[in-house]
Each structure stands twice: as C-alpha cells, then as structure tokens.
Write a structure and sequence with these properties.
The complex is a heterodimer of chains A (339) and B (99). Chain A is of the alpha/beta class and 339 residues long. In chain A, 48% of the residues lie in helices and 16% in strands. Chain A is built from 9 helices and 12 strands. Chain A has a 4-stranded mixed beta sheet, with helices on both faces. In chain B, α1 runs antiparallel to α2. The radius of gyration of chain B is 14 Å and the shape is globular. The chains are: A alpha/beta (339), B alpha+beta (99). Chains A and B meet through β1, β4 and α8 of A and α1, β3 and β5 of B.
C-alpha cells in the first residue's frame, strides 16, 4: 500500500480531544478513550468543528507530513496545517513561470475543462443508456459536444471559462433527471449556503475531494494556490480547484447520485438552518464519509497506464503528470478521463 | 509498500518490580505498532521495516532468561488465517475511520 492511500481519520464528534501517546494517536472524549490508532496507519486528519489537538500531536503531524485539515461542523473548509516548505523549488519556479506565460495558461485551462466536459458527458451518456432520453439530457449532451468542439479554438482563458460555464449550466439543468428517488429534487445548483439537500451533498463531497486534490499537489511539491483555470485569489487553492474539475462529475457527482438512488440517504440525514440553509447532519456526514472512503479504495483499470489503480490515487497521478508537464518532461498534460 | 499482519505475544516475568516495568514497556512498544486483541497478544499491520524496528525495540527490553516473546507473521493476512470467537476488539485501520 502506498503512502498516498494511507487512511484519513475523520473526526466529527464534537468535543473530542486528540493527543499523542508514544507513536499512537489517542482519541478521547470526556476522559473516555474512544480509540487508539498507531500513527503509521494514518495519512491525514480531517477535523470537523470543535475538535482539539494537543500541540505535540500537531508538531508530529507537521514533521511527518500528515495532512491536517479543519472544516466547520457543517463541512466547509477552514484551514490546513502547513509544515516546513518542502518540495522542489525548481518545480515551483516552473509553475510560476507557466502562470506568466499566456499560452501555457490557456493550454492547461483548456485541458482541465476538457477533462471536466468529457467526464460529465460520460455521466450524461450513462444516464441516457440506463433510463432513456429526456429533453434536458439531450440538451446537456448537445452543449457538451459543442463545447468540446470549440475548446481547441479558444483563444483566451476567459473563452475557455465561457465554454465551461455554458456546458455546466446545461449539465445542472439535467442533473435533476438523474435522481431516481422521489424523496429528493434538484432545481439547479446553489451554494454558500446550499438551499436543498442535494446541493448540500454536492458541496460536501466537493469539499472532501478538494482536500484530496490539495494534498496530492502538495505531495509532488506544487503550489496548490497557483492555478491556471481558476483566478488567483488570496487563500484560494486555485490549482486544487483546477484539478478538481476533472473529478467533479466522474467521482463526486456519481457518488452523490448513487447514494441517493440506492437510498443510502434520506431527508432525515439533513437539517434546515434558520435562513433557509440546508446542511447534512452528523449521521448524514458519517454516511457520506464512509461511502467516499470506500470509493477511494476501489480500483479501476487506468485508461492511460493500463494498470489497476486505486481511485484514491488518481489525484496523485494527475498531480505527478502535471508536475512533469510543467518541468518539461512531458510534451502534453493528459487530463483524467474515466470510463 | 507491502504490509504484513503479524501476531505478537509475550510472557514477561513479573515476580520482581523490574519485571512489572518491563511488562509495561513491552506493552507500550506493541501499542505503538498495533492493537491489543487479548491481554498479552497484539495484532499489528506493519511494513517489513516497521517489523524490524519493532522487534529491535522489544529485544532491548526483554530479559531472555526470564521472558518470552513470539512474533508470528500471518501468511496471506489475518483474513485468511484467523478465526475469531467471542469478544473481538480488533479494528481494521484500513476501513474508513470516522469518529
């Protein structure tokens, strides 16, 4: 098992205290030890809401490169532990130079969007195969074909974003047709805050996946904030969001759809907050995390390498390919396209 | 990296005070690598390097003329060679860990 796949510990019980005892992580709740986990089993910690960490545990995580990420209780990303600056300074210089080169920016932005569109098209095509055409599905497929055709001719990153936006709005107009359970409806994408269960679910899974993409980029020594499709903004992991595009439909959306369609989630897993925000509750988050982690461990035949690869490793593979492209070791950056 | 499921069992002679101390130190090392499944029995999922590391640490603690230490490697992993009955305190750390 590779280190990238080492398990992430998700802590969402409020008021839990994590501390180090020797090389073992001890999880305590009001003097009761809930669990002991030897540190070598862990690749990272994801902490939701009011979870305390002892200083020594934090030091150790920084030292050993364990990814620690903090989220609000409802799953919004808050922060991340940054250890000593590491990785290859030459690679980072290549990354910053690429940012100042409009043609490289355009090239990479177009490749990320190409990955996104092709994967979204797969999700739509599968839906048509399984339960027949609908007007919205046909329209979305048409928009994706059109955008994919126009993408190579785009002359600026803004044009690429425009094509992506057009396809995305058709995609989300059709997304409701992919839900089989009568318990949930989808009337368009909304966020900050999500206003219905499906949007809450999408936001939560995207957040989990963003952490994975960030970790993968950090892992190869790239700066996750310096992106090409997403504009730079203080505190925003633009490159992680770029990479996320390739996985949104194929990984996150399909997970959301299968959880709803297999009735692994019901309206009881959500709660409405004053002001109309809808969020997953503790039980709901737990169910999603278990499904998300399960998916990470599944393997697929990698379309490029023709070898079985655990899905959890895909962001790491893409990060490595991107690093090699930026350093000039690869003439092309191949976005991930599933099957 | 390939990982092994190993079984570590020990008897530490506790008639003396030093014996008590050794017992505690042996348990501590074992805890850092795996989990207690019975009083003096630990199951650990470790790489070869971690196994060597653990063994070396344990050998520094035990007194060969008084204590006994046995390390079994489970060929093909614990799922293949283990039948558990009664109380089972084992957690698979490769499963999603949600607290």
């Amino acid at each position: 098992m590779t280190t990238e796949l080492l398990n992430t510990l998700y802590v969402q019980t409020q008021g839990v205290y994590l501390r180090l005892e020797g090389d073992t992580l001890r999880i305590q709740h009001e003097e009761v030890t809930l669990r002991n986990v030897p540190l070598h089993h862990l690749g990272g910690l994801s902490l939701f809401g009011n979870v305390l960490l002892s200083p020594f545990l934090l030091h150790r995580c920084a030292e050993e490169g364990l990814e620690v990420a903090w989220f609000t209780e409802s799953g919004r990303f808050q922060g991340r532990l940054a250890g000593p600056v590491s990785g290859n300074v030459l690679l980072r210089r290549a990354q910053y130079r690429a940012l100042d080169n409009p043609s490289t920016c355009l090239y990479l932005a177009a490749r990320f969007v190409e990955g996104k569109l092709r994967n979204a098209r797969l999700v739509l095509q599968r839906a048509v195969r399984e339960r027949g055409e609908t007007e919205a599905l046909n329209q979305a497929l048409f928009e994706h074909e059109a955008a994919l055709r126009q993408l190579p001719q785009a002359r600026s990153v803004d044009e690429v974003r425009g094509l992506e936006g057009q396809a995305a709005s058709a995609y989300f107009a059709a997304f409701g047709d992919l839900l089989l359970s009568g318990e949930f409806r989808f009337d368009g994408r909304n966020k900050r805050p999500p206003r219905d269960p499906v949007n809450a679910l999408l936001g939560f899974v995207y957040a989990l996946l963003t952490t994975q993409c960030t970790a993968a980029l950090e892992g190869v020594g790239l700066d996750p904030q310096v992106g090409f499709l997403h504009a730079l903004r203080s505190g925003r992991n633009a490159l992680a969001l770029d990479l996320l595009e390739e996985f949104r439909a194929w990984w996150a959306d399909r997970l959301v759809l299968s959880m709803i369609n297999r009735k692994q989630l019901s309206p009881e897993h959500f709660e409405e907050r004053p002001g109309g925000a809808v969020l997953l509750n503790e039980e709901g988050r737990k169910a999603v995390i278990v499904a998300f982690q399960g998916r990470r461990q599944e393997t697929l035949q990698h379309p490029l390498f023709k070898e079985p690869v655990p899905i959890g490793l895909l962001p790491h593979i893409q990060a490595r390919l991107l690093a090699r492209y930026l350093r000039g070791d690869l003439p092309e950056y191949p976005p991930f396209v599933g099957r | 990296m390939e990982r092994l499921d190993i079984l570590v069992t020990y008897d530490v002679n506790v008639t003396s005070e030093e014996g008590q101390a050794r017992l505690a130190r042996v348990a501590k090392v074992c805890k850092n690598f795996g989990q207690r499944v019975q009083m003096s029995v630990f199951e650990c999922r470790v790489t070869r390097a971690q196994l060597e590391d653990m063994e070396a640490k344990l050998l520094k603690i035990i007194e060969p003329d008084k204590d006994s230490l046995r390390i079994y490697t489970l060929p093909g992993g614990r799922e293949k060679c283990l039948r558990v009955h009664g109380q089972d305190r084992y957690t698979d750390f490769d499963d999603p860990l949600v607290v």
